[in-house]
Structures are given as structure tokens and as C-alpha cells.
């Protein structure tokens, strides 16, 4: 299941987006629950770049470059089309972006 979710078995890449609203994370979230940040842009996470060992998945650290100010509350992982929420995580204290 984990391999399929992350496209480790060629089912489609996933995308990481930052979000700027104080969303409540649950297992029923839909994309409309999040205000996705457009600066910085989302990043595609290629399925073959994931490492899966003993049920634990890891991916190389990703860096978001931005040019505007704002607050980012967390990130959400979606399918490649950005239409299905796979999981989300809220940052502990939010992240202030300063242009």
C-alpha cells in the first residue's frame, strides 16, 4: 500500500504543496480544506526517488524558494493532478515567510 501511495510501483507521482490557512487535519480532508500557496510553487515528488525500507518511506529534503511574505501552516501531499489529498501535516508553530 505504501509503495502504491508514493508511486514507488508506478501509479503516478505525488505533489507537495504548502498551505496558508489554519486547516484542521483529519482523515477526511479534501483539497478545498487548504489554501494552497502559489509562491513558492508546489514540487513534484517522483515515485522512483522514494526509499522504502521496513514500511518507512523517505525522500530527499526539498527546498521551497519564495518571493512574497506570508504564513505557511503546513504541507499537503496530493496526487499529481492536485485533486486528491493523500495526507497533510501542520507545522508546529507555522512558518513566517519574509520577502
Q: Gist?
A:
The chain is mostly beta strands and 99 residues long. The protein has one helix at 2-5, and strands spanning 14-19, 43-45, 51-53, 56-58, 70-79, 85-97.
Feature tags:
99 residues, mainly beta, two-stranded antiparallel ribbon, globular
**Number of separate strands:** 6
Tell me, rounded to a whole number, the average pLDDT.
84
The N- and C-terminal alpha carbons lie at a distance of 40 Å
Biggest β-sheet strands, sense, barrel: 4 strands, antiparallel
Shape: globular
Give an account of the 3D structure.
The protein has 99 residues and is mostly beta strands. The mean pLDDT is 84. It has one domain (2-97). A hairpin with a 5-residue loop joins strand 5 (70-79) and strand 6. The chain is built from one helix and six strands; from the N terminus they run H-E-E-E-E-E-E. It is globular. The chain has one helix at residues 2-5, and strands at 14-19, 43-45, 51-53, 56-58, 70-79, 85-97.
Topology:
Elements: H1 2-5, E1 14-19, E2 43-45, E3 51-53, E4 56-58, E5 70-79, E6 85-97
Antiparallel strand pairs: 1-2, 1-5, 3-4, 5-6
